[in-house]
Amino acid sequence: MPDLVVPACDFTVFGGTGDLALRKLLPGLYQRERQRNLHPDTRIIGVSRHDLDDAGYRDLVTQALFEHVPDDQLEAGAVHRLVSRLHHLRLDATDPEGWDGLHALLKDTPGSATEDTIRVYYLAVGSGVFGPICDRLDDLGLVTPQCRVVLEKPIGSDLDSSRVVNDAVGRVFEESQVYRIDHYLGKESVQNLLVTRFANTFLEPVWNSRWVDHVQITVSETLGVAGRGGYYDQAGALRDMVQNHLLQMLCLVAMEPPTYVGGDPVRDEKLKVLRALKPLTGADVDRLTVRGQYTTYGEEIGGPSTTETYVALRAEVQNWRWAGVPFYLRTGKRLARKESTIEVVFKEPPHAMFPHSEGVTTPNRLTIRMQPDEGMQLHLTAKHPGPGGIRLHPASLDLSYDDAFDERSPDAYERLLLDVMRGIPTLFMRRDEVEAAWEWVEPILDQWEQAGVEPVRYHPGTNGPAAAATLLAREGRTWQE
């Protein structure tokens, strides 16, 4: 539909031949091409150190589309349209020389005056070169008020390095031009969490410490580190997943209603949650965190390591709404299931009204599923049909997006890439959010290092270390499997 076409732009991907570009970004742009969201004048420019001309890059991307897009979604016309937009430039981002080709290509923009051209610079490279790339773009006069820069995680490895990266980017781009991407915020179910909370009235009266017993946030993977061993061994699960993905989901569960869902109002409320997190330091880290590693990790990376591949922890939001409610977070690799879920577990009824009933009551739960099978379930206790007494039985109201809607559920990157082109920052992290998250995570890292905390071992294909179950069992709770 014409009203869904986003403004024309030059979309430049630094790291244009990398895994992220070929597996997520370009397939995501293809899906938007398939829906005819891309303006006819939009160009996609891959920048890498590979010696490819435009034709070679188009062949590479075509192969990637056939590998990463389902067969029933491949359309020859859409593939042709996307591929015809592609250009490739060989460039070493760390070398100040060799940028003439990019300068010439971006200055030669069809369809609009140079100052009005929307340029998106997607930095799908290590954060160590974010600053040099931005400086060179500025030197070449390729940064205007209409430009946007997208930063992939991780942005630094701790608070200080994060500030160094953000300062370097901030010398060139205004904060309003910087889009720090967290693809979990683009998932359909995460978006629907905002709608569920703020477009419906029935949940708001019970969305607080009076009625909520605790919250569980789980992101588990069945795969190991695959080809990311070099990066992952320097990062670990706490930096790679908790500092961004899991804390962002916690914020969406715990935040106060914004004045409207858009831009800074949402990010203001998320920042308040991060700043309200009870600090974990010293003995609290030892008691309230679990650090694990699957037993074959050393074999995969080629040597022994103390890097964690699993984290579980107990957090608490110290404000009026959530005081005393535990938020349990866990994430890990080589686990039994691939899943991403949020479980809001409500308190037991205050009085047992059915003393002679059969069966048991279970706490009401709201389950938000990011993967697999995006959707929601509201778990209730119901009466089993039949005469002669009351038999209690667990039942659920199930919303599966695949079943409820005819439309295909878009990948997170598809939505986020269009939001960048449109200039909509709501689903991207602001600098103060990133730094607040590092401020909370860093004492945990420090305590692990100072106390010499070795990861506890767990076998691949299990639910992780037994200590993670103990973390909840001490308070009479269990993980929802």
3D structure, described in words:
The protein is α/β, with parallel strands linked by helices. The protein is built from 15 helices and 15 strands. Strand 13 (375-383) and strand 14 form a beta hairpin. Helix 1 (19-34) crosses helix 3 (76-84), helix 5 (130-139) packs parallel to helix 6 (159-170) and helix 8 (229-254) crosses helix 14 (431-450). The model has no long low-confidence stretch (mean pLDDT 90). It comes from Nocardioides aromaticivorans. NADP(+) binds at residues 49, 153. Pathway: Carbohydrate degradation; pentose phosphate pathway; D-ribulose 5-phosphate from D-glucose 6-phosphate (oxidative stage): step 1/3.
What tags apply to this protein structure?
Rossmann fold, 15 helices, alpha/beta, 2 domains, single chain, Dihydrodipicolinate Reductase, domain 2, 481 residues
Strand content: 15-25%
What name is given to the CATH topology of the largest domain? Dihydrodipicolinate Reductase, domain 2
Mean pLDDT comes to 90
Would you tell me the structural class of the helices and strands?
alpha/beta
Q: Shape, please? A: globular
Number of domains: 2
Q: Tell me the name of the CATH homologous superfamily of the largest domain.
A: Dihydrodipicolinate Reductase, domain 2
Report the order of strands and helices. Answer: EHEHHEHEHEHEHEHHHEHEEEEEEHHHEH
Rg estimate, integer Å: 24 Å
List how many beta strands DSSP finds.
Answer: 15
* Count of runs of 4 or more consecutive helical residues: 15
Query: What is the helix content?
Result: 25-40%
Family: Belongs to the glucose-6-phosphate dehydrogenase family.
Keywords: Carbohydrate metabolism, Glucose metabolism, NADP, Oxidoreductase
Enzyme class: oxidoreductase
Function: Catalyzes the oxidation of glucose 6-phosphate to 6-phosphogluconolactone.
